[in-house]
Fold this sequence. Notes:
0% helix, 11 strands, mainly beta, four-stranded antiparallel β-sheet
Amino acid sequence: VQLQASGGGLVQAGGSLRLSCAASGMIGSVNVMSWYRQAPGKQREWVAHVTSGVGRSYADSVKGRFTISRDSAKNTMYLQMNSLKPEDTAVYYCRLSDTSLIYWGQGTQVTVSS
């Protein structure tokens, strides 16, 4: 399984970005796709996840501002990020976990200027 993340960039505070994560390969039908992020000097933290049953969950820090979704037909996950804050600056990683393994994509940089 390979994951390809894209959509990062530089945006001013209050702006929006949409991240995408495309999965390819043999993916188990029961799986969870997640976004994590890692800011400089900090540990990687969970941001949100969406299950194959389309259940969603968010970290408190992004709740109400970020929306996670997935297109199962395309094996693609999205993260719509609105009302961005400087503290959202980080490298964002996508992750897929099925019943046996965990896969990580390469990161995409999100920088929010004040």
